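Q: I have 128 residues here and want to know how they pack in 3D. Can you give me a structure?
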Amino acid sequence: MSDVEKVMADVNIRQFKLMNGDEIIGLVESINETNFMIDRPFKVIVNPIKTDAFNLVPWFDLSLSNTFTIDKSMVVAHAIVADSIKETYIKFSVQLDKAADAYLDNPYEDEYEDDTPNLIPDTTDTLH
C-alpha cells in the first residue's frame, strides 16, 4: 500500500443522506452518541447536464464556520466514500480555501477590472 493510499484510508470522509433529502459529503472530525461533527460539508448535486456526474456546493455557504454538528436523528444513512471521491473532495476543499483566502487578502482587487464589453455605444467616440 502506497503512502497516498494509507492517507486516503485514514481520512474519514463520508457521504450523508439527511432526513430533509440533502446529500452531503464532509470530513468527520468526531462522532459521539448523539451527533457527528463535520468539517467542510458540501451538498452533492446531480449535474443537470451530465447526469452521471455530480457537483459539490458549500452546504452552509454564508457561514463563517467550517465545522457543523449534525444530529444523528437527522441522518437517514451514511457511508465512507471511495478514495477517488475523497481525493476530489480534498482538492475541491483546498481550492475553495485558497479562493477564500485570496478574497480576504484583497476583496476589492477585481472591482475595477471589468472584462464585459460595453454594449452601449459612446457617441463621443469618432469612428473612421
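Q: Anything worth noting?
A: The mean pLDDT is 82. The radius of gyration is 21 Å.
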